[in-house]
């Protein structure tokens, strides 16, 4: 059972996902919040697995709330669900600690799978956002250089692949994947997979195109 907290300042928008998840047998909606500050307080009290968050809200922004959830060391994963998908929205949310970023237009099964992935701490990006992040990466300038294998990793992570899938795609062991990720985090000065993708994109690091899955 995956537990959720829904956060959006529009009751009608909250009610859509609430009805979908409440009707599904493997999800439980613990509550709903209308702003970032309320979301942080509820997350601390209810301890959900995933917080489904709107990044733009008048009563405390979702990005600031995700940053606060991360700073407090709560185990819940922040998953952004919004109509906004510009780089100015996506990058700050991911760097704040969001596990993933989805458009509200995502269909039911895609949303369910995204929440399951977020609960397992897997990076979740809508296909359009993932494609833009992967294609927008260019040669690094003025930062610690990445090895060839470290360059392979961000593009695969952006697709939401697990360590096992990355190992299979690159013909290496899972232990080696973890080593590459550790080195990648250190060089990009990040602490998780989603932030590694966002920072690589922001810094313009060109990655080889990995084989199609």
From TrEMBL:
CDD domains in the cross-refs: LuxR_C_like, REC_NarL-like
GO molecular function, one term: DNA binding
Domain HTH luxR-type: 139-204
GO biological process: phosphorelay signal transduction system; regulation of DNA-templated transcription
Positions of modified residues (4-aspartylphosphate): 54
UniProt-listed SUPFAM superfamilies: C-terminal effector domain of the bipartite response regulators, CheY-like
Key word Transcription present: yes
Keywords: DNA-binding, Phosphoprotein, Transcription, Transcription regulation
Name of the molecule in the record: DNA-binding NarL/FixJ family response regulator
Upper classification of the organism: Bacteria, Bacillati, Actinomycetota, Actinomycetes, Pseudonocardiales
């Amino acid at each position: 059972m995956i537990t959720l907290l829904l956060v959006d300042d529009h009751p009608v928008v909250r009610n859509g996902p609430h009805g979908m998840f409440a009707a599904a047998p493997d999800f439980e909606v613990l509550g709903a919040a209308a702003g970032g500050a309320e979301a942080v307080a509820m997350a601390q009290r209810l301890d959900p697995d995933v917080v489904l968050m709107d990044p733009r809200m008048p009563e405390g922004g979702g990005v600031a709330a995700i940053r606060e959830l991360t700073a407090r060391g709560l185990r819940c994963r922040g998953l952004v669900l919004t109509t906004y998908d510009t780089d100015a929205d996506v990058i700050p949310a991911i760097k704040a600690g969001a596990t993933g970023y989805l458009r509200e237009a995502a269909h039911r099964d895609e949303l369910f799978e995204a929440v399951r992935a977020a609960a397992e701490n897997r990076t979740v990006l809508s296909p359009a956002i993932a494609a833009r992040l992967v294609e927008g990466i260019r040669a690094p300038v003025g930062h610690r250089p990445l090895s060839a294998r470290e360059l392979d990793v961000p593009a695969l992570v952006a697709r939401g692949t697990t360590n096992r899938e990355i190992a299979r795609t690159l013909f290496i062991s899972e232990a080696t994947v973890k080593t590459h990720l550790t080195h990648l985090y250190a060089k990009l000065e990040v602490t998780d997979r989603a932030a590694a993708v966002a920072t690589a994109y922001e810094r313009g690091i060109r990655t080889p195109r990995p084989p199609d899955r």
